[in-house]
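Person: At home tonight, work slowly through the protein below, taking as long as you need, and write a paragraph about the fold.
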Amino acid sequence: MRGEQVRVPAWVIWAVTIVALLLRLPLLNYSFYGDEGFSVIRDSLKLVTDTEDRFRPLFFSLLYIWRQLGFDGEAGLRLLPLIFGIAQVPLAYLVGKKLRDGQLGLLLAVLVAASPMLIEFSQELRMYSMVATIALAQAYVLLLMLEKFTWTRWAVFVLVALAGVYTHLLYWLFLMGVTLTFLRERKRLSIWKSWGALAATVALYLPNIPNLMRFQETRGGEYVMDFASAIPKLLAAFTVGFNYFVLGEQPAGRPIGMDDLAANLPLVLLALAAGSVIVWKLIWLHGRAEDRRILWFGHELFTVPVILATLASAVTDKYFLQPKYLIFSVPFALLFLAIAFDDLRNPRGRQVIAVLGALMVMIAQFHYWQPKNYGRKENWRTAAEVLGTAVGDSNALVLLPGHYRLLSYYAPGIEDRWELVDVQEDETSAAERLTELAADKRSIYYLRHDVVQNLRDPKDLMISVLNRTGKPLSITQLNPRFKLYRWG
């Protein structure tokens, strides 16, 4: 169905934006988790962070300013990525409208508003929501330049590109896709103007290279990557996000197997049912000249970055280069969905696809709002509340060597009361120490975080040794990947 004659009233876009806000508000005050600890504890204490994350400083600088304005706590700090997440909706409308018409813009805005992936990162205190907004702004300015070149638009394009690369390293892959757009549209915009903008971006990024090298030396090889799971993770992430699945125990590299698909069968079947129709329609649309320009635009800003990230991660074996981190390309994956759905001629078919998509989003959101049972949100706040009062003279807390900054954040001083036990370095000495603690203390607590456990205790020797002490065991699940064990 075409929308050339359809005028989208402003109130409709406002309504979609308000719905997007309502979907992003629940759990905004949930415990900080994962890499949010770097953001809140370490990287936003100065206007320009001096840590290894200095190579992508822009979000942290904005977060520092945000804190100086008085915003604090989980909800207060997460308002910053939330604002970026809400801004994506009108930007998506403008991009779709500029590409073809208001109806395509509205469809894209609705998909962005309801995207589980974009909802998730609108609530995460990291740079991902910001960089997705930057990518949409980049696409819009790019389309304006192609429509009518002015040096003001050229300068804005460069500034937006700089914001992108100083926010997220992989944004360079997005700009490589933009390079192909410039090449394809060279009759509308001369090469020296378009590639000159990219050259200016590169030149202004060169002073940041030492910071990038520092990150590579410090954390570049920190995590193991399971390359076979890279594309399945990408598909899962770009359909229903990271925090929506039933995920059991996962070893290092977090490989995804058939058991994981079986455990999430409703979402998998819904995605396959709707996705197969959309993919078929997209294949058919590639043979039609009418929408080829829009399809190429989507490929340049989504497909090309994904291919480049996949190749880069395969060649380098670097975890941080996986295509699942291309959050900024999510809106352009949704562009494919929008154009395919809009071209479905059968009204009943459109209704079926719309219902299947809505069901998938509803199930995903239901899961997302239950972080105790789904996804990757560790509840450090509740863990700290329990351990902060329980650990003392009669009860011990043992941990594997690793990072527990959020535990210290929520329970200041608890680091003086825990004991690090390295079962990997010396299993015999570790077993003796654990047995000694079990004899001396009424209860032994162990906070099992799979990120640390995969690296420092992949065989779960800590649990095996403490199970042999004879003390009764109770387990509190705070998240599928984050559990509090208590013996005694």
Q: What stands out?
A: Residues 10-368 form one domain. The first strand starts at residue 395 and ends at 399.
